[in-house]
Design goal:
Low-confidence stretches: 1-10, 213-224
Number of strands: 0
Helix content: over 70%
Mean pLDDT: 77
Shape: globular
Structural class: mainly alpha
Order of helices and strands: HHHHHH
Distance between the termini: 52 Å
């Protein structure tokens, strides 16, 4: 047989791989949702803006996994609308973190460096674990590869939080925490804007397709 596949073998193998992928995605969703709650709660408790900003990454990934699982196989317009909600939420959350950082700068609040360091290391371990679990899917389609890349890149944010904790401990000031928070929150807002723009383009393209609701009739068609 071409490609060395017997009849039905390739489709069966792909089905098994897809089930494993979905199971891995559910696990990644659970880890990211849990770490979002843990890191955000720790950020509030320790008065750390960097922890709150890093929690934004976990929130974004959890939302991404949930949307991927919920709308898989649905129409492009449905997936685009779901992405719009995700993007808008990321922007709002990122702006809130930036506002909190500005307020902390004004009030002179100092975060708890020990809590920052412990939770930062825990978050790093969680992201590395998810990245290793998804490593086998790194050569799949763009969606699967993007999930692995996001988990891998998020570890950079965790390292930044740990560095900020060391900076707060070493300098006795909140500036390392605020700088890292500003960078991570800005990246979250930028990512949300990109998602909203991409989803809006997909929706406009869908509305412009012949036969789509609201689309102009094609040449030769009869408008009713």
């Amino acid at each position: 047989m071409p490609g060395g596949c017997c009849e039905g073998t390739c489709s069966t193998t792909e089905a098994v791989r897809d089930r494993r992928w979905r199971r891995a995605l559910w696990i990644a969703l659970g880890v990211n949702a849990t770490m979002f709650a843990v890191e955000f709660g720790a950020g509030v408790s320790a008065d750390s803006q960097a922890l709150k900003a890093d929690a934004l990454d976990f929130f974004g990934d959890a939302a991404n996994y949930a949307i991927s699982l919920a709308v898989a196989g649905m129409a492009l317009s449905v997936r685009a609308k779901a992405a719009l909600v995700k993007g808008a939420t990321l922007i709002a959350f990122g702006l809130w973190v930036l506002g909190s950082a500005l307020w902390a700068t004004y009030t002179g609040a100092r975060p708890q460096s020990i809590t920052m360091g412990v939770v930062g290391v825990l978050a790093l371990a969680a992201n590395v674990g998810v990245a290793l679990m998804l490593y086998r899917y790194r050569d799949g389609d763009s969606n699967r590869r993007s999930v692995w890349i996001c988990s891998r890149n998020d570890a950079i944010g965790n390292v930044a939080v740990v560095a900020a904790a060391a900076g707060v401990f070493g300098t006795g000031t909140a500036w390392p925490d605020l700088v890292v928070a500003g960078i991570l929150a800005s990246l979250g807002v930028w990512g949300g804007l990109q998602i909203v723009r991409h989803a809006s383009e997909e929706l406009r393209a869908q509305r412009g397709r012949p036969g789509a609701a609201g689309a102009p009739p094609t040449e030769g068609s009869v408008a009713t």
